[in-house]
Design brief:
Layout lengths: L1 H31 L6 H17 L5 H24 L7 H23 L23 H23 L1 H11 L1 H6 L4 H27 L7 H14 L4 H21 L7 H14 L14
């Protein structure tokens, strides 16, 4: 029983990271109705920026954290305005090719500027903190707290601010949004900026666990994608819950059924199964359109 509880709680800790990645994917999907395959590489590049500020420039962790989030937001906005705006009305396949190209570019830039050696990334939460427990480390609990803060901040932003309401309107009905004066293209850019910022938070939270290298987020992006689909690709809270479920399933099946070597197949099976049986996810909305 003790071992089972440990696997469940460890899975929840992993699911926190998957949920934050899933949240970033949902932000992009709500804005563009596309999946950003470069999300993991963008998060990794942002984490390298934070690492350089902390270890080479001598910044404190939280100063580097907030600066990196701001830089990532600006970077995501610029990517949308410079790279993606010209292909807003292009076919889906064109967007997919561009996303894959961005993945390769950010991966190559991370290796070129920061090299391919594995680097350690310090946690801002000390091991002997008062909230350290038997089943959760202080970093895992701290990461959960950061994700909860991000989730509530997004909820408040989209529900109570004029910009957030405009972004929701632009995502749900861009034609009607244009008629009332909303600059839809800029709203898409803000969505990309928010997604990049959330991805940076996820990268900085996961780096102390898996170490930092240009391919750090490759597998994690797959788990995050599975969580986003399972919870509902158009539902931020559902995506976070889906990430937690994926984390627990991955740990339990890896420990007791398929072995740790095949844990990544859990994400693949969940992706295929969700798309086949329940494409809207557990908490997604079924959209019916007249044709």
């Amino acid at each position: 029983m003790e071992a089972l509880l440990y696997q469940v709680f460890s899975g929840l800790a992993n699911g926190i990271i998957y949920g934050s990645v899933a949240l970033a994917l949902v932000m992009i999907y709500q804005a563009t109705h596309h999946i950003n395959f470069a999300q993991g590489e963008m998060a990794t590049f942002s984490t390298f920026i934070a690492w350089a500020l902390i270890n080479e420039a001598g910044w404190s962790y939280w100063a580097a954290f907030f600066f990196t989030v701001a830089v990532s937001f600006a970077g995501g906005l610029l990517v949308q305005r410079i790279v993606l705006k010209p292909i807003e009305k292009a076919p889906v396949l064109t967007n997919v090719i561009v996303f894959i190209g961005l993945l390769l570019i950010f991966n190559a830039l991370a290796g070129m500027f920061f090299d391919h050696t594995i680097k350690s990334f310090a946690s801002p939460f000390p091991k002997d903190a008062w909230f350290d427990t038997k089943y959760f480390s202080s970093h895992q609990i701290g990461s959960a707290g950061v994700l909860v803060v991000v989730l509530f901040a997004l909820f408040a932003f989209f529900k109570y601010t004029s910009v957030g309401l405009a972004m929701r309107a632009a995502a749900q009905n861009p034609d009607s949004a244009k008629l009332v004066g909303i600059r839809v293209s800029w709203m898409l850019g803000l969505g990309w900026g928010l997604a990049a910022a959330i991805g940076a938070v996820a990268g900085m939270m996961v780096a102390p666990i898996v170490f930092l290298d240009p391919n750090m987020m490759a597998g994690i992006l797959l788990y995050g994608f599975a969580g986003a689909l399972l919870g509902g690709i158009d539902n931020p809270l559902g995506a976070v819950i889906g990430g937690l479920v994926v984390g627990v399933l991955e740990n339990l099946l890896g420990a007791y059924v398929i072995g740790t070597e095949l844990k990544l197949t859990v994400a693949l099976v969940l992706i295929v199964g969700t798309l086949t049986l329940r494409p809207d996810g557990l908490f997604g909305k079924k959209v019916v359109t007249r044709v």
